[in-house]
Amino acid sequence: MAEASRGYKGKALVQYSDGLEEEDALRVYRFQVLLPSGVSTSLTLHNPGEEMLVRDLLLSVKRELNNASVGGGRMPEIQWDDNIFLTDLLDEKITDKIKLSNFDTKSTNILRLHDEKGEPVSTFENMWDLTPQPDLVQELPAEYSTESALVDLTDNALQALWSNGIGERKLIRITLVKEKIVIFDTGRGMDGSDANSICKWGTMGSSNHRVFRQKGIGGKAPYLLPFFGMFGYGGTIASMHLGRIAIVSSKTKESRKVFTLHLSREALLEKAGSKNSEHTWMTAGGVRDPSEEERLLSPHQSFTQVEICGLKKHLEADRLLGFLKDVYFPYIQYDEDIESMNTRNPVEFEVNGVNLAEVQEGEVTVTNLHSSNGPDFIWHLKFTEKTAASCQAHARLKCVYFPIVKGKESIDSILEKLRNDGYEMKENFDNFSRVSIRRLGRLLPDARWGPLPFMEAKYRKGHKAEFFRRCCKRVKCFVGKLNI
């Protein structure tokens, strides 16, 4: 198994798994060598021994490059002289011998080659092997909208930072500029190690988030446990639905470098449609130092940034403020802390520099402002399916009453306020959504239900029956749903 730092058994930091198993009688080392010309080449060594002279390894690299050139590839210009040397991605310089026991035999290890010809490049062709299922990009469900894609990426960011330690900043910052959107979080980050590989972010079906799904089971209301882990497609689906190009930059606390992954929708679809496709997708990546801004935003020195260019649909920053606050309201401001009676801000959410905790827009915020101040009416439900593998689900139902204020229905006032704020509300008092659903604290915006059976008055004739029916229509149920 690849290690996360050289502090344990001396393993190299950057390795990505290709699923190949080591044979008992054969030690095979696989390397991806990043060249100073900005390309990379693969190298496989069979039973090379515990150590190997760097000059012998470089001869093998040169032989691979010559073979690629004979096959029609371009031979990169490299100064093969005494000044050439290797580094691992911990910046450890290797000039004489390479100790192969520091590297893994079940993963692909990355080395950088330097010829001291000039300034080193930071981006390399064919650095990462994502091997996706490209048809997933072409066959997204019809209801998968731009907003759904943005929420999926924000879910990833929220889950990544939720495990931050005490005193470590929890920030999600979304920046929208013309045809580009940037999503930055101060989560645990990624590198090239097998456990935290940035490859898994881009490889469909390899998301680490599925592993954490079990953490979303249990707990107490309002179930602020953002371990969604539903689909496991990685960030490719969402980012390629939003735009044409995505650049993912990430850093862990253990690494001194930022690792980058470059995605192109055109390249993916071209590979998917190729008759000669070998069902692999090599994509560019890079290594760089963290910027000063990144250091300031994340004092604990781990983060992930997703930059998407060539947006397919124009996004309005003003509309995103209310929409994202609706979806992540209890993570932005939690008003139900009975012990302290104070509002908590579990996560810093920013959109174009605006703190969402200060935003007074959005359906949830407006609805809360118009609800009554009476005692809460709450049900806690537990569902159990008695099968061979018993399954459980938990939910909390909180019913809120919206009274008449100054002769006007509060629900009518809510709808009027939302329309004035630019929201396209086609509902009225009679068909206004009476049920709002959150899964692990995150709103499901498309789940707009009518009243549940217990919310409807029993049918009776007469004046009192009409009165009770009207009163029941002033009730809205907020469902907090926990993982199954």
UniProtKB/TrEMBL annotation:
<protein>
    <submittedName>
        <fullName>Uncharacterized protein</fullName>
    </submittedName>
</protein>
<dbReference type="InterPro" id="IPR036890">
    <property type="entry name" value="HATPase_C_sf"/>
</dbReference>
<dbReference type="Pfam" id="PF13589">
    <property type="entry name" value="HATPase_c_3"/>
</dbReference>
<comment type="subunit">
    <text>Homodimer.</text>
</comment>
